[in-house]
């Protein structure tokens, strides 16, 4: 079974490596009724296709090595906009309205899988200071299907739900109650994903 899984992954990786595939959070659905969106989102991007242009242009690539080297901050970069600069993206999100964390501590999101290696499983973490520098692991309660970031789904909207760590208190942003949630997959060409801002304000 293990060998079969490795063979499947190898075949999928070869097949999909010719396509720069992506997945991004297109909605964070707040308990306060507000629907937020990911940093770097281009609202005019169509969501009914899978090609590089225009469908993949606002998906974030979030690589630890690029963060460590200073090439990007904690929320990575997009093909269209470059680095997701928090000092720009957070005020934009606040101006549009921040989705709130549920009373149960859950952050409910919609993941748009553009094409094959925008699949799951995803990992999520949270920065309670909202400065993109100190992320803590979140529990993913409802994940995106996939194997090592790969599946055959395209142009699909899929629920993604993650829970705040016990006792986590958001202290960033203009309201002093904002966190940044970051989710990304394990795709070899990525990782792909998004950062979103959420508030604990009631």
Automatic annotation (TrEMBL):
Annotated signal peptide: 1-21
Pfam family, one: Egh16-like
Entry keywords, A to Z: Signal
PANTHER family: SECRETED PROTEIN, SURFACE PROTEIN MAS1, PUTATIVE-RELATED
Name of the protein in question: Secreted protein
């Amino acid at each position: 079974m293990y060998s079969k899984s490795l063979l499947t992954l190898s075949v999928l990786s070869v097949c999909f490596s010719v396509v720069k595939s992506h997945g991004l959070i297109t909605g964070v659905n707040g308990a306060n009724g507000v629907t937020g969106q990911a940093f770097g989102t281009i609202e005019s991007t169509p969501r009914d296709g899978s090609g590089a242009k225009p469908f993949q242009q606002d998906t974030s690539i979030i690589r630890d090595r690029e963060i460590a080297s200073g090439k990007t901050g904690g929320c990575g970069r997009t093909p269209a906009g470059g680095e997701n600069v928090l000092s720009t993206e957070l005020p934009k999100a606040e101006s549009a309205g921040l989705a709130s964390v549920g009373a149960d501590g859950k952050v409910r999101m919609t993941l748009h899988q553009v094409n094959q290696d925008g699949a799951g499983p995803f990992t999520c973490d949270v920065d309670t200071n909202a400065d993109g520098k100190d992320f803590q692991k979140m529990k993913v309660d409802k994940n995106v299907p996939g194997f090592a970031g790969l599946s055959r789904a395209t142009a699909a909207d899929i629920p993604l739900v993650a829970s705040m760590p016990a006792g986590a208190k958001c202290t960033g942003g203009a309201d002093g109650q904002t966190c940044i949630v970051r989710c990304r997959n394990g795709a070899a060409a990525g990782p792909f994903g998004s950062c979103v801002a959420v508030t604990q304000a009631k």
